[in-house]
TrEMBL record:
<dbReference type="InterPro" id="IPR050680">
    <property type="entry name" value="YpeA/RimI_acetyltransf"/>
</dbReference>
<protein>
    <submittedName>
        <fullName>Ribosomal-protein-alanine N-acetyltransferase</fullName>
    </submittedName>
</protein>
<dbReference type="InterPro" id="IPR016181">
    <property type="entry name" value="Acyl_CoA_acyltransferase"/>
</dbReference>
<dbReference type="InterPro" id="IPR006464">
    <property type="entry name" value="AcTrfase_RimI/Ard1"/>
</dbReference>
<keyword id="KW-0963">Cytoplasm</keyword>
<comment type="similarity">
    <text>Belongs to the acetyltransferase family. RimI subfamily.</text>
</comment>
<dbReference type="InterPro" id="IPR000182">
    <property type="entry name" value="GNAT_dom"/>
</dbReference>
<dbReference type="GO" id="GO:0008080">
    <property type="term" value="F:N-acetyltransferase activity"/>
</dbReference>
<keyword id="KW-0012">Acyltransferase</keyword>
<keyword id="KW-0808">Transferase</keyword>
<dbReference type="Pfam" id="PF00583">
    <property type="entry name" value="Acetyltransf_1"/>
</dbReference>
<feature type="domain" description="N-acetyltransferase">
    <location>
        <begin position="1"/>
        <end position="155"/>
    </location>
</feature>
Length: 158
C-alpha cells in the first residue's frame, strides 16, 4: 500500500467512494474535494493499492483542517472513508496514524464529528484518545442523524 497526499486527479474517486459510504447523507462531490485539496490549511491523504510501478486505486482517504494561529493551532478532521471492499484491513488506522502525527507535530488538539450509531468509528477514535464532548442533534443531513463531537488533547496535555 502507498500513502500520499491527495491531488486534484484523486477527487473523482473520493467522490465515488463518498456516494457509496454516505448514501443517506450529503456526500461530497468532486468539486468539493477539489476545493478542499486546494485550501492552504487542509491536509488530505490517500491510501492506494500497490500495483507494481503504476499507481494503484485509491482505497481510502482522510482529511483535516488546521484552524487558528500557526503557533497555537487546533485541527478538525473533515472526513475519513475506506472502500467497503477493503474495510477492516487497517487502512483507516494508517490514515489516522498520519493525521495524528501531523497534529502531534504541532502539539495541537483535534476535533471531529461522528454519527452516534457508527460504533466501529467511535471505537477507533477512542483508541486514539478521543473523548465524547457532546451531541449535535440532527447534524447529518438529509437523514437528521445525530453526531457526537469528540476531541483529542494535544500531545503535551496527554
Amino acid at each position: 500500500m502507498e500513502m500520499r497526499e491527495l491531488r486534484p486527479g484523486d477527487a473523482a474517486r473520493c467522490a465515488e467512494l463518498e456516494k457509496i459510504l454516505f448514501p443517506d447523507e450529503n456526500p461530497w462531490s468532486e468539486n468539493v474535494f477539489m476545493v478542499e485539496f486546494a485550501h492552504p490549511h487542509t491536509f488530505y491523504l490517500g491510501a492506494f493499492e500497490q500495483d507494481g510501478d503504476a499507481e494503484g486505486q485509491l482505497l481510502g482517504y482522510a482529511g483535516m483542517a488546521m484552524l487558528g494561529p500557526r503557533d497555537d493551532p487546533e485541527f478538525e478532521i473533515h472526513t475519513i472513508g475506506v472502500d467497503p471492499g477493503h474495510q477492516r484491513r487497517g487502512i483507516a488506522r494508517l490514515l489516522m496514524d498520519n493525521l495524528m502525527l501531523v497534529a502531534d507535530n504541532f502539539d495541537a488538539q483535534v476535533f471531529l464529528e461522528v454519527r452516534t450509531d457508527n460504533e466501529p468509528a467511535i471505537a477507533m477514535y477512542e483508541r486514539y484518545g478521543f473523548t465524547n464532548q457532546g451531541i449535535r442533534r440532527n447534524y447529518y443531513q438529509p437523514s437528521g442523524a445525530d453526531a457526537y463531537t469528540m476531541s483529542r488533547p494535544s500531545r503535551s496535555e496527554r
